[in-house]
Fold these 2 entries.
Entry 1:
Amino acid sequence: MNKQELIDFEEDIKDLFLDGKIRAPIHLSRGNEEPLIEIFKGIQPEDWVFSTHRSHYHALLHGIDPEWLRQEILAGRSMHIFSRKHRFLSSSIVGGCLPIALGVATAIKRKGTKRHVWCFVGDMAAETGVFHECTKYAARYNLPVSFVVEDNGLSTNSPTQLVWGRGKGNPHITRYKYKRSFPHIGAGKFVVFK
Amino acid sequence: MNYREEVIKAMAMLARDKRPIFIGQSVRYSGHAMFNTLEEAKVPMRKRIELPVFEETQLGMSTGLALEGYIPVSIYPRMDFLIIAMNQLVNHLDKIEQMSCKRFTPKVIIRTMVGSKAPLDGGPQHTQDYYKALRLMLTNIDIVKLIKAEEIITAYRKALGSERSTILIEMADLY
């Protein structure tokens, strides 16, 4: 799908929404067509794609039929686009797909299959603890998963980096190292209580 | 009939099936009573994935493994730890079938435990029983509290054969 086709699709959805034909929330995309088209050149049809509440472009670029997608949106499922055929899932919870994508990638590596996993998140999701956990684990185990951060600088309408206090460093963390002498729990022997 | 021995037999039964994979902290290294049951059941190391402490991520990973055809046996040694994973449990595993119009039906077996109060009392963060709370929150996941030794193998066998996810709650005081 090319840039204009993506824009036309969202324009159609916008009009349907404004006409009161969609009785559920929608989250429209605009302005990120070119980077997404480039990214999806590297995504194979058999790959898994995990998306967010703003998923229309991802679904279309992964090969989902535009008319099928339109009907799903008309049915009120814009925030929950799922296609078994295209291995496409989404979550409307911030960062919700991250660990699920990690699990699929773990399974693929264990099986030795060739598929890859792609997980799209927003810039606020990329600041969360679960993002840190998943990206660290994926990198250290060399899992077949790529994370794409779609950074529009906003989380709903909050400026993400301003909210996080950009550039202030973190003087609140002190770390020291030590070697454990006792076992994790107890004192190394079973105790018989009398 | 001994409660702990029945748990061990249930783990051995799960391990004989090619689909289950045991996942969590202390599934390959000692650290809690559930590890000992895996050891005594002789669950092969190749069927165990040792994870860091990231309960929420663990449950999401379990869902992902299930999407690719495995049956994860996701281990939370205390119910107090399982509730850290509520987002992935309630908003995702429990809802994916509904959200996807049954296009995806991942099945996970979640194994957890109510911590013991005797002879050592683990206190408020290691002994809670959230069975009733989970029943109120979950709509698409079966929850089984294992009170009697004789029901343990049947419950795990049913979970293995079910099309739905199941939470099985063991009682440390009965070990």
Entry 2:
Amino acid sequence: MAIEIDPERREVAALGRVADWKGAHVLEVGCGDGRLTLRLAGLGARVTALDPDRSLIRTARRALPKAHSRQVRYYVGSASRLRHASESFDMVVFAWSL
Amino acid sequence: MVHALQEAHRVLKRQGQLIDVRPGPSHRRVGILHGRRWRLVGVMRESLEEDRAANAAIRVALSKGLFRREAYAKVDLWRHFDTLADFAGFLEEFTRLGADLPPHDWMVQRLKTALAKIPSTAKIVVRGPLELRRLRKGG
């Protein structure tokens, strides 16, 4: 791989320390290509992930491993107008996007 | 940004948690990793205005009682680049995202000089703080 972000996995270790993700229904805002999404799924979260960039969502969908396919859902959308009912998520993650 | 936080507050269940993960407002350090040794080559001069604006938005949300602080963590995040071209792509990404980044040709030149002196297995590594905040939904 030509570029690798956090191969030392310090980010995911810190995520594991700051919250209990197992079984949580998570909305991830600004998921990009899904790099962090897969790490959250690996921690046991069920993730609905959105990004305004259609091409990044396409990339994320292509890279979604079968093992996480029932845990993760991607869609194109904006943080300023979330298309979800009130009080529907246990956690909201701003993934490098605030 | 405050509006996005209000939306997050709306879709969170009672006592739900907001996790804010992003680079801290600090200039990234660029260096060469050879074996287990990282050596500083230069410090980037990127604008930190967006990071500061995000921190300000969090303060507003806290002052409005939308959330309360619960936990904070900070780690040293590394990005590895195999080649100078990969690093140049990273710099271009700032421009693509509309960030205010002055020319960094001097950094590319310094890296080129540094890489010429060591084996080809060396990598370019950009280091910077990554901050994680856990906020709890308020009233």
